[in-house]
Specification:
Length: about 80
């Protein structure tokens, strides 16, 4: 999972392809994980991303579920999605 430096509660994960970004977001939602897809024109072309917002109310198990879900879905969907 490619991480982007961030000092805020928002952790972007750059996917690059708008279709793949949306597909990952939708698949995660099906798993109960609400991760928003941010796509062009909101962000520059080629920097489409998932927007993860972390908070103090998240527990360690919540973060682990997110990481597990991301790893599974990103492996499940081909790069050319």
């Amino acid at each position: 999972i490619p991480l982007t430096p961030s000092i805020t509660a928002i952790q972007p994960i750059i996917i690059g392809c708008p279709k793949r970004t949306l597909a990952i977001s939708q698949r995660l939602r099906e798993m109960g994980l609400w991760i928003i897809a941010i796509r062009t024109p909101t962000v520059p072309k080629g920097t489409d991303r998932l927007r993860i917002t972390l908070s103090a109310s998240h527990h360690k198990k919540d973060i682990q579920a997110l990481v597990d879900g991301l790893a599974f879905v990103m492996g499940e969907l081909p790069d050319d999605q």
